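can u do me a favor
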């Protein structure tokens, strides 16, 4: 829900309360899940907003109390909560002008600003069913808002992506890092499998698949895989019931960095790291 809206903003299809379309953005980053932020947001939601800790330096936070009436489940509550933050741009005044400059008058639409701030790319959210409402919380980082700064830079999408964000997807600058590389590679292979494009050793293609799921990040699996890689396979713990695991030793010769090492992992058909629906592994350099 966040990236769909940021994509629309980058492409110039978001309007303010005056009905005027905001300009396109050239440096808006695609958001991704951050496990630390997710844990913090989940803890806040679990207390039904009884506690209000400061999210910390460089972190912003949005909260919504979504009444239970007419809301059958948490997914619906998430949609209502996130939508309530974003729609501030077209329902609350004073609005953002076409210079997209952030100032003190925008306190009433701060939730929108948190969601739209171009350099922000880490996201962690939590939800909990309380007595009369669903508590919906999202935290964002880096979120160094400053009066007088532009919420984003004006220009054609992805024409001024910062270093380390060299891919453009749906008008957003996408980070080049390990977590993204692992996830994208797995889903690329699984997509090929579902479409009947994977070839066996004998040259025949495997049939198309009707029930193959798109993988997503799981913070617990990521932590476990990171610990195993950090030990350079010195320990071999059982991954646990319902969890599978793949390992690969990639020689350092001809492998300049970790992203290259991830790409070199041999996946001849579809080799699933960890779990059938969720994925994350990690890699360390052994000297």
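np, heres the sequence
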């Amino acid at each position: 829900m966040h990236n769909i809206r940021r994509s629309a903003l980058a492409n110039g299809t978001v309007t303010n309360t005056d009905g005027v379309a905001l300009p396109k953005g050239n440096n808006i980053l695609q958001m991704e899940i951050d496990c630390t932020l997710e844990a913090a947001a989940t803890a806040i939601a679990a207390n039904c907003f009884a506690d209000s800790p400061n999210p910390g330096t460089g972190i912003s936070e949005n909260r919504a109390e979504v009444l239970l009436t007419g809301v059958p489940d948490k997914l619906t509550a998430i949609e209502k909560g996130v939508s309530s933050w974003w729609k501030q741009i077209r329902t609350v005044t004073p609005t953002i002008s076409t210079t997209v400059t952030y100032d003190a008058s925008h306190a009433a639409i701060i939730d929108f600003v948190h969601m739209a701030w171009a350099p922000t790319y880490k996201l962690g959210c939590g939800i909990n069913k309380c007595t009369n409402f669903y508590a919906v919380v999202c935290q964002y980082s880096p979120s160094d808002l400053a009066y007088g700064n532009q919420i984003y830079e004006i220009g054609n999408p992805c024409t001024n992506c910062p270093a380390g964000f060299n891919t453009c997807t749906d008008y957003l600058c996408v980070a080049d890092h390990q977590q993204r590389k692992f996830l994208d590679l797995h889903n690329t292979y699984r997509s090929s499998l579902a479409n009947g494009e994977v070839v066996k050793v004998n040259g025949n293609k495997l049939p198309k698949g009707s029930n193959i799921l798109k993988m997503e990040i799981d913070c617990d699996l990521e932590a476990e895989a990171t610990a195993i890689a950090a030990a350079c396979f010195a320990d071999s713990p059982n991954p646990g019931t319902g969890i599978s695991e793949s390992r690969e030793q990639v020689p350092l010769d001809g492998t300049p960095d970790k992203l290259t090492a991830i790409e070199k992992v041999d996946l001849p058909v579809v080799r699933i790291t960890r779990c059938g629906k969720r994925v994350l592994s990690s890699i360390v350099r052994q000297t």
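Strands lie at 32-33, 60-67, 122-129, 133-141, 167-169, 172-174, 216-217, 278-279. hope that helps!!
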